[in-house]
From TrEMBL:
Residues 290-331 are annotated as: Disordered. It comes from the Eukaryota. PANTHER family: RAS GTPASE-ACTIVATING PROTEIN 4-RELATED (PTHR10194:SF4), RAS GTPASE-ACTIVATING PROTEINS (PTHR10194). This is Ras-GAP domain-containing protein.
C-alpha cells in the first residue's frame, strides 16, 4: 500500500484539488460560459475537448514518470512475482510476433488489478478520506482508461473501442515505451540483486518467534568457549532465521531455512550450559557453516526431557526438526 501511495498519491491529490471539468466523449460534453464578468461567452465543444485532453495528458505523463522512478521502491514480493510471470510467459510464447505478450501479462495485474482500480476508487485504497464527487470521478475514470490503454500496449483493439480517446494517443504511445522500460528493469535482477531480494523476502515474512538470544559463529577450528557468545535480537520466520543488534536495526544477518542442514542440541560440557544448540547450514556460496545458539534457560511452563532421554524434537518452520528443550527455551 505504501508503494501505491507513493506512485499515485500526488496525482490523485492534484485531481481532487483542481476539480476541473474534464470530458473527452463529445456526446457527454457540457458547454459552459467562460470569460470575465460581463463578457461571458459559451465555451465551444472543441475548447472543452482540447482543455480536457491537455489536463489528462498532464496527469498521465506525471503518473508514468512517477512509475518509471519507482523500480527500487516496488515491494520485493511484487518484483519476484512479476519476474517469474514475465519469464514463464516469454518461455511459453517465444518469437518476435509475441514480443509484447510478457509485458501485457505483467500489466494485466499491474494496471488492470492494481493501479486502475485505485485511480477509480481512491478511498477504497486509503488514498483519500472521502469518495470523489461526480466531476472528479469522471476525471479519474478517464485517467484510469488511459492507464489501461498504456497497459494494453496501445493495441488497435483498444484504440477502436473508444475512438474519442484519440487525443491522448501521443502520450499513450510514449507511455508504452516508458512502461516497457519500467517492466524490463523491474524483472531484470542480477545475481547480487537476486540474493538481496531473497533476503528482503525472508525479512518480510511474518515472525513465528522473536526475541534476544546469544550466538557464536565458528571461524576456523578454535576452542569453543562461552565468552565468545554475542547477544543479538533474533527473528524466526517461515523463511529464515535472522539476527541483528537491535529489533530496529536495518542491517541484519540471515540464515535461510532452506540452507539449514541440521539443528541439534550440544552437550553441556562443550560450553558449560545445557541450553545450547548448533545449526549447521550453507551460506549463499554453498560453503558449510556452523552457528551455536544459547538461551538463558528453558521456559518453566514448557521445559521437558532432553532428546537424549528419548523425547523427540519439535518441528520448527519449514518442517525443520529441532531439540525440544531448545525449542521450549526459545518460546
Amino acid at each position: 500500500m505504501q508503494y501505491l501511495h507513493g506512485v499515485l498519491g500526488p496525482i490523485i491529490n492534484k485531481v481532487f484539488e483542481e476539480k476541473k471539468y474534464v470530458e473527452l466523449d463529445p456526446s457527454k460534453v457540457e458547454v459552459k460560459d467562460v470569460g470575465c464578468s460581463g463578457l461571458h461567452r459559451p465555451q465551444t465543444e472543441a475548447e472543452v475537448l482540447e482543455q480536457s485532453a491537455q489536463t489528462l495528458r498532464a496527469h498521465l505523463g506525471a503518473l508514468l514518470s512517477a512509475l518509471s522512478r519507482s523500480v527500487r521502491a516496488c515491494p520485493a514480493v511484487v518484483r519476484a512475482t512479476f519476474r517469474q510471470l514475465f519469464r514463464r510467459v516469454r518461455e511459453r510464447f517465444p518469437g518476435a510476433q509475441h514480443e509484447n505478450v510478457p509485458f501485457i501479462a505483467v500489466t494485466s495485474f499491474l494496471c488492470l488489478r492494481f493501479f486502475s482500480p485505485a485511480i477509480m476508487s481512491p478511498k477504497l485504497f486509503h488514498l483519500r478520506e472521502r469518495h470523489a464527487d461526480a466531476r472528479t470521478s469522471r476525471t479519474l475514470l478517464l485517467l484510469a482508461k488511459a492507464v489501461q490503454n498504456v497497459g494494453n500496449m496501445d493495441t488497435p483493439a483498444s484504440r477502436a473501442k473508444e475512438a474519442w480517446m484519440e487525443p491522448l494517443q501521443p502520450t499513450v504511445r510514449q507511455g508504452v515505451a516508458q512502461l516497457k522500460d519500467f517492466i524490463t528493469k523491474l524483472v531484470d535482477i542480477e545475481e547480487k540483486d537476486e540474493l538481496d531480494l531473497q533476503r528482503t523476502l525472508s525479512l518480510q515474512a511474518p515472525p513465528v518467534k522473536e526475541g534476544p538470544l546469544f550466538i557464536h559463529r565458528t571461524k576456523g577450528k578454535g576452542p569453543l568457549v562461552s565468552s565468545s557468545f554475542k547477544k543479538l535480537y533474533f527473528s524466526l520466520t517461515t523463511e529464515a532465521l535472522s539476527f541483528a543488534k537491535t529489533p530496529s536495526s536495518k542491517k541484519s544477518a540471515l540464515i535461510k531455512l532452506a540452507n539449514i542442514r541440521a539443528a541439534e542440541k550440544v552437550e553441556e560440557k562443550s560450553f558449560g550450559s545445557s541450553h545450547v544448540m548448533q545449526v549447521i547450514y550453507t551460506d549463499d556460496a554453498g560453503r558449510p557453516q556452523t552457528a551455536y545458539l544459547q538461551c538463558k534457560g528453558p521456559n518453566p511452563r514448557n521445559a521437558g526431557p532432553s532428546r537424549s532421554s528419548g523425547q523427540k524434537g519439535s518441528r520448527g518452520p519449514g518442517g525443520l526438526e529441532m531439540p525440544r528443550d531448545v525449542c521450549d527455551a526459545y518460546e
